[in-house]
């Protein structure tokens, strides 16, 4: 379940809109609770070709989980998009 995007930027990052990013993340919401857990984020990182998925997912949750519940919910998706741009070789287009 690779990230399917329309294009790559000149620096080699995969480009996608925020809506495409949300749809892609939903594929990893195994329990369909509308939130992304650390394990679900690790799966997404692994599938996208990322190394050290467990470490990155732990760092990602800690970095973007604004309410401290251990999950990424809809209100925190933009924070996760910013994390993905820095650590997952993705460029999110906010328009």
What does this structure look like?
- The chain has 95 residues and is mainly alpha-helical.
- The chain has four helices and three strands; from the N terminus they run ββααααβ.
- It has a three-stranded mixed beta sheet with strand order 1-2-3.
- A hairpin with a 5-residue loop joins β1 (7-8) and β2 (14-17).
- The N and C termini lie far apart (25 Å).
- The model has no long low-confidence stretch (mean pLDDT 87).
**N- and C-termini, Cα separation:** 25 Å
Number of DSSP-assigned strands: 3
What is the tally of helical segments? 4
Largest sheet composition: 3 strands, mixed
Global geometry: globular
Report Rg.
12 Å
Q: Name the beta content range.
A: 5-15%
SSE string, helices as H and strands as E = EEHHHHE
Q: What's the pLDDT, averaged over the residues?
A: 87
Helix/sheet category:
mainly alpha
- Low-pLDDT segments, ≥5 res: none
Adjacency order of strands in the biggest sheet: 1-2-3
Question: How would you briefly describe this protein structure?
Answer:
The chain is mostly helical. The chain contains 4 helices and 3 strands, in the order E-E-H-H-H-H-E.
Features:
95 residues, mainly alpha, 3-stranded mixed β-sheet, single chain
Draw up the topology in text.
Layout: E1 7-8, E2 14-17, H1 18-26, H2 38-47, H3 53-64, H4 77-87, E3 90-93
Parallel strand pairs: 2-3
Antiparallel strand pairs: 1-2
Helix pairs in contact: 2-3, 3-4
